[in-house]
Predict the 3D structure of the following.
Amino acid sequence: MKEFWDQRYSEEGFAYGEQPNAFLHSQRQRLRAGQRALVLGDGEGRNGVWLAEQGLRVTTVDYSAAGVEKSRQLARRRGVEIEALCEDVFQWQWPREAFDVAVLIYLHFPSASRPEVHRRVLEALRPAGLVLLEAFNKDQLDYPSGGPPERDMLFSAAELAEDFAAAEIELLEERVVELSEGKYHVGPGAVVRLVAHKSARASDTDKKGG
């Protein structure tokens, strides 16, 4: 898959546009300048750069070298700084309790590895840290607007409720939205959205190594 993403991000222009994801943008009232934000699977940097423009200190992680280079170029062009890391999340040395916000936009994993990544996301957040997630749900197979072609890599609200059971879930919904993100996310799309906060209980468990 790394080769697939390197090829996609090597194409002219920005595969998913230069503007932030609409759901992320709609949550801007939850963000504060000076917060540390982790953006996983940020591709060409559209979400991380936008967060930096809001005054957040941003670290992005993506395993496509082509995508990471484009994200750095976009940040320079827009006059902001981001820490853009070319890393595989399964091999990355995840920080613990280092971030105030974690953003996951259309970052899909097989069901066997999805819970582990989401657990690490919570571990990387400080107490009361915020998770903002949008991904395609199982119904996306009925729509031609993008996303993995395999059902196992699509999420459901029930799966996310289980993955983030240790967090305080504020919003969890499945809905059909109109996508307009570059040339690869266009038209109706079936998505699942999550807003959650790391709880003090989850933080205590992390410290005990649970």
Summary: The chain has a mean pLDDT of 95. The helical segments are 2-9, 22-26, 46-53, 65-78, 114-124, 157-163, 200-207. The chain has one domain: 2-10+20-207. The longest helix spans residues 65-78.
